[in-house]
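Final report, section 2: Outcomes. Of the targets proposed, Coagulation factor XIII A chain is the one most frequently requested by collaborating groups, and we therefore present its record in full.
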Amino acid sequence: MSETMSTNEEKKKPPLNGRRAIPSNNSNEEENEVPEIEAFGLIPRGFNPKDYLRVVDIHMFKEPHEINKQQHHTDKYYNPKLIVRRGQIFQIQIDFNRPYKPETDQFWLEYLIGRYPQQNKGTYIPILVGNMLKPGEWGAKITHKENNSVRLSIMSSATCIIGKFRLYVAVWTPFGILRTQRNSATDTYILFNPWCQQDAVYMDDEKEKEEYVLNDVGIVFHGNINDIKLRSWSYGQFEEDILDACLFLMDKAELELSGRGNPIKICRVASAVINSRDDNGVIAGSWDNTYTYGVAPSAWTGSVDILLEYYSSKQPVRYGQCWVFAGVFNTFLRCLGIPARLITNYCSAHDNNANLQLDFFLDDEGKLDTKLTKDSVWNYHCWNEAWMTRPDLPVGFGGWQVVDGTPQETSDGMYRCGPASVQAIKHGHVCFQFDAPFVYAEVNSDIVFSRRQKNGIQVIEKIDTTHVGQLIVTKEVGGDGMMEITEEYKFQEGSEEERLALETAVMYGVKKQSTQDVYQPQTDVDMDFQVQKAVLGSDFKVTITFRSRSRNYYTATAYLSGNIVFYTGVAKREFKKHSFSAKLEPSSSSAFDVVIKASEYLSDLLDQASFHFFVTAQINETGKILAMQKATVLEIPALRIKTQGELVAGKVMSVTVEFTNPLKQTLENVTLRLEGPGVLRTMKKEFRQIPANSTLIWEVKTIPRQPGSRKLIASLDSNALRHVYGELNIQVQKP
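The predicted structure is given below as tokens.
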């Protein structure tokens, strides 16, 4: 670009540092001034720009029903500007003041992004009009000429920066270059293109692209391994202002514009900016069951409210837990065109020192020592997978990559995680960036129970090698069912391949302590326990079973500890202690019931109605310990959603939400939320109280925007009851 530009800029430039000639260009929002006349020297007195070819109008074909948005799968974005995907042809039309004469007239296009556009950084892109287009490279050719208009086909580069570009048309005259004025109506968003073979995020399966890029609702699997629960989440990546909010996140993370064509870099910085730790990012996490001055994590029904609040306030939104971080991250990835899915890992290890071993310390009576025990098993943990090639790794490690926005541990000094290749985790090749050892530990750690004897020596009592990472799931393609993907992360438990993958991981530096030599378990008695399924507010029982295969008579001293826990496996308090002794007959089974009363747990119950039970038994004759632990979740009643009348796009429809309070107490300060992408923006209603066993009914009128199959999602939140959801699939007809 020329001298005149830089002089306008001088006044506004931030101070330079000694290392760069140009300040860093890391904001899509900022712009530079582009001169409308760029003179080659002194302009002669008789020069009149009107004598030359002049642009009168530019047509972007940017309506949802027009060719560009249709061909580029961007017709669902609620955004008036042109949105295209990189590496694929799009059309524009330029109207001049007279017919264009290729022999004498010369014009070209200029796409600019950021405040300091430079050609070598891909932030200033001049495009000359030629005769042919090369796939995946910038170019333009005229496809049609009529009167004063020309129709252009433009090809963008398959590695182009993702963001909002400004378009200028430049015309050459003997005395200088004439440019169109700055016109925001011609701004063009360029996104990743999973439909383009040269794009790093190319995905060949059409149904998978429909799901992982274009589906704007999803399912979060939660609960626990013995009682899987699911709820819908509205990603809303096409809703108004969401695309701008997602681009703002990259500005917030100060990702250099020239790096924004690379999905690896984008995922890595996004995993840091999704959480508020160390960079004032989007969501503040809170795991302590107090959510003053904010929204309880369980009350959100989707990502749109969170992203829009952050985009306008620029302050972290309170509060989130893992599925909220993952839901918002998924919206960000799909919105930019990176195929993404939300994953749930049941029994997820949070290993504070990444040694592939979770240490649970028992005191000399066999009770859990909460002061010493720092590691925890989360009932479940949600993260995301993003689909891309990994040219920075050896061949074979592309495809799904783990990215995690929940702040658990720091990576290179910031709370972020990934992208880590799922394939590398499965085979134990944890030397490949980023954060593979941490993810490997989340799905493969052993739980080691050790007990401190009276003389102070720690003795290992039990090693559980199968509890962690038992089940890894995501929503199925094209439906709301669950798809198990455990075998993408690990080989069959106990197989030869699994052992080899573990040894590979250890060789590449995952710390593993050897414990086998010390530990001889009691082999002729098995202990197990089952927790009865129960609805919130009712009594239930825990049944402990011993099976003896010995010829000897044994007696056991057993202890059950019931704890109310956060879903992260961290105990809030022990609400049930029960000791009993058991006689074990030779070669037989015996069962013992412990009743848990509602009155024992209701006063302290947390968000997700999660309990964690430890049962520890000592065989008196041998001194050996049997230890077992399980998490369980109560059934929480659902919201019922109904619609009345016909459902037609553009016509008023009525939605009712109903809920019956199951508790023996009045619910106070109840908030209902209802949303449905393409049908209604999030609505909220507060109720002072709902008496015990009474039913609340809320009616809402709305006008659905888009026809097709849609989903309504509702949540109820109150201090005494959380994680109450409801949903309804509806079919909106064309008008």
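The domain at 213-508 is CATH 3.90.260.10 (Coagulation Factor XIII; Chain A, domain 2).
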